[in-house]
Amino acid sequence: MPEEQLFKTEARRTRTEIAEALVAAAEEIESGTVDLKDESERQRVALPERPLFEVELERLTDSETGEMRYELEYEIRWTEAGAA
Q1: Which residue numbers delimit the Amphi-Trp domain (predicted)?
Q2: What sections of the chain are H helices per DSSP?
Q3: 43, 26: one domain
Q4: Residue 15 dihedral angles phi and psi, to the nearest 5°
Q5: Tens of pLDDT along 6-20?
Q6: Is 36 helix (H, G, I), strand (E, B) or coil?
Q7: Is residue 11 helix, strand or coil?
Q8: Dihedral sign from CA coordinates of 62, 5, 30, 26
């Protein structure tokens, strides 16, 4: 089955705003249910007790500007079978 994007949002924020969003996300993750929302979309997802957690830091060259770009990603993965 091909990848299906269920939710995505992207906006420039201050470090403080990002930290506040991550703290709020951490509280939801700990509770087991995460609400993702912006002005036009909303998704709610239940997380299993022990999903896979990945932290990744990448350095890339921006194809449009040629500038060095960094991406810091926090990813949580699980399968539907793993959620049972």
Answers
A1: 1-82
A2: 15-31, 80-83
A3: yes
A4: -60, -40
A5: 999 999 999 999 999
A6: strand
A7: coil
A8: positive
